[in-house]
Structures are given as C-alpha cells and as structure tokens.
Design brief:
By secondary structure, the chain is of the alpha/beta class. The chain has eleven helices and 16 strands. The protein folds into two domains: 205 residues, Rossmann fold (3-Layer(aba) Sandwich), CATH 3.40.50.11010; 144 residues, Glycogen Phosphorylase B (Rossmann fold, 3-Layer(aba) Sandwich), CATH 3.40.50.2000. Strands 3-4-2-1-5-6-7-8 form an eight-stranded mixed sheet, with helices on both faces.
Length: 370
C-alpha cells in the first residue's frame, strides 16, 4: 500500500499530534508520505511550530522511513474573518489550489489511500480525485472546523466534498454536529501510546498531596488562584501552561516550563489527581473524548478535575464551573475521595489505523445518517 497524509502539521516536528502517531502506524503497513501545507512567510507572524524546519522547506527528506515535504509558498491562504474581505480569501485559496506543488501532484497520483487531516487539506480533494480517481480518501477529524476557525472557503469545500469521501473518521460522536449530512461517518476514538507506562517512574514528588496540570491549551489561570487558596494542603504542579508564576497564586503552586513529554509522565502517574483547567468560553464538547491530558490521567487511573461541559460519561472525572469557587471546591473534594480507576481502555494507534483503513468492518463505529 502507498499512503499519503495531507496536513498543516509536519511529521518531523518535535511537538507531536495524533496525526504523527497515525502516520507512524501507516509506515509499518506500506510506503508512507507526509505532505505539509499552508506554510509561507506569513507563518512567522503566527509562531508556526514548523519554523524550526524552515531550512527543509521545499525539499524532500525522509524521517523515520516516512517521506516528508514542507511546501512553502510566498503567501498562503487564510481566514480573512471579515465577510467583506471574502473575495480576497477566495482568490488566495483559488490560486493555492490551482497552483499545487509538483510533489503533491506526483504523490497524490501514486497513492492508494489519501488521508486529509481537518484544516486546509480538504481543499485538495478535487485535485486528488482528478489525478487518482481510484484512491481511497479518508478524512481525519482532529478538530471541528468551526472550533479552529477554518476559513469559509475551507468549510464550504468540505461541506461539498465530505459525502464523496470514502470515510469521515470522527474522534468523538459530538463532532457529528459540525458535519454535513452523509452516511460515511465513523467514530474512531483518539489513539494512545501505551509505551508511556515505561517512562512514568519514579515519583518526582516529596511526601504530601499533589495535583498536576499539563499543557497550555485554553489554560485558565484563575482556577489555580481559587483552588490553591481553598486547598493549602495540596501542592499544585503546573507544567507547560505558557505563563509563568502568578502573584495571586498560593504558595502551594509550582510552575514549570514546557518539558519533553516523557518527563511529564512521572508527574502524572504519581499525583493524587489531575486537572484539565480549560477556559469555559467556546469549549467544544468533543474535548471530552479528545483531550490528551484527560486521556493520560485516565490511563494512569487518576481522578480528574475539569469543566462540567467536558466530563462526558467518564466516571473518573469531576466537573466544575470555571470561575465558581464553590463548584471548584466540590470537584476537588470529590477527586480527593475518589478511587484510582480507569473509565475505559483507549485504543492503540495500530487499532486506530486499522479502523480508519477498514471502517466498514467495524459496524459499531458507524454513525447513523442525519
């Protein structure tokens, strides 16, 4: 099999997302190529995580047996946000789509299966099907397009082409709300790297009660302002939040810079409970099923404290209303009293890959037509 992955990520990036783990599994099954798009001089203005790979732009390289290409153009299309600027947006996307990289053209023509990660990649669906009408086309819904503020052009294109794709793979049933009507939708949960268990010892903590938060996504500093003063006996550890120590945190708060993923694992495994302090505004419901930090807490049998809107049907999570000190106290008390159990066993990435490649063989994954 010959696989092609289209994404605004790059397989060579240090920071890993689900598409990286999926690609690593595809490489075990056949020749795999990773084409990274939506990168230009404008990317510097948005602190694009691919900036460290700038010297590799427009060059074919191999990383972990995966052929990689970062397509850099003078400018790339983007969400103009203002409706009166929509003609400019349409022009930029039209130019981008009709002047594709020769590498994309060659790789698309040779692929047996093409994976389109949510974001800009669906705009190349027509190109792929014109070059290679026999190729299977699989949409990987890492995020809802509205949640990531995808351009109107991207959303309109996706709504048009989604029913024509071989499969739309959603990481949560809640994602179906943002999907056009179609009968090709499957719920395939986010995969998990089980090897993390090998890197989670020994404990980094001194004696006492410890709670941990990892990551910067939608980080709500106010949670720790409130919680640290309500629970002076708990030591709160904040890793990689993107902001430093705050003067209104209690003395029982420790703040750490971002650290390599494997170094965070002992902090997670040996804490009393985990915290997912997401801000409340525009919090997508599907985060209940896709939040990596919540998945990691559950894997290590850690009770978790998180906003009510993403508790989902996980018995090991205890919800609160952001900014509400009383509900925060109730959720932490519940987490402190909870047993260490896992709500469910996640899928291995190899299982995710097989389900995406053969979704019809797993009828329990199919969502009913809306």
């Amino acid at each position: 099999m010959n696989f092609l992955v289209l994404s605004a990520h790059d397989y060579r990036s240090r920071r890993k997302a689900g598409i990286h783990f999926l690609t690593a599994e595809l490489e075990k099954l056949g020749k795999t190529r990773f084409f990274s798009c939506q990168y230009s001089l404008l990317s510097k203005l948005k602190s694009d995580p691919r900036a460290s790979l700038a010297d590799l732009a427009n060059k074919k390289t191999t990383h972990g047996n995966v052929e990689c290409y970062l397509w850099k153009t003078p400018i790339h299309p983007f969400n103009v946000r203002k409706s009166y600027l929509r003609p400019i947006e349409n022009f930029l996307f039209g130019w981008y789509v009709h002047n594709p990289s020769s590498v994309l053209v060659d790789w698309a023509a040779e692929a047996d299966v093409v994976f389109f990660e949510s974001g800009i990649s669906p705009v190349f669906f027509d190109l792929v099907t014109q070059l290679n009408p026999q190729a299977r086309t699989i949409y990987v819904a890492s995020d809802d397009l509205a949640t990531i503020n995808a351009a109107a052009y991207v959303k309109a294109t996706f709504d048009r082409v989604a029913p024509q794709m071989s499969a739309l793979c959603l990481k949560s049933r809640y994602m179906s709300d943002g999907m056009p009507e179609s009968s090709n939708q499957y719920v395939i949960p986010h995969g998990f790297d089980f090897s993390v268990a090998k890197h989670a010892d020994p404990s980094p903590y001194p004696p006492g009660v410890h709670a941990v938060s990892v990551g910067s996504m939608l980080f709500d500093r106010e949670f720790f302002v409130i919680a640290s003063k309500q629970f002076p006996e708990v030591m709160f550890h904040i890793i990689g939040s993107g902001i430093g120590a705050q003067s209104d945190y209690g003395e029982n708060v420790r703040v750490y810079d971002e650290m390599p993923h494997h170094l965070t694992l002992p902090y997670i495994k040996h804490a009393r409970f985990g915290i997912a302090p997401y801000r409340a505004e525009n919090l997508p419901r599907y985060l209940a099923d896709t939040s990596l930090k919540l998945m990691q807490y559950d894997f290590f049998k850690l009770p978790a404290v998180c906003p009510n809107s993403i508790v989902g049907d996980y018995a090991s999570r205890f919800g609160y209303e952001p900014g509400n000190s009383e509900s925060i106290a109730v959720s932490i008390d519940a987490a402190l009293a909870a047993p260490r159990v896992s709500s469910r066993m996640p899928l291995r990435w190899s299982e995710v890959a097989q389900r995406m490649l053969n979704p019809a063989q797993f009828e329990d994954l199919r969502l009913p037509r809306k």
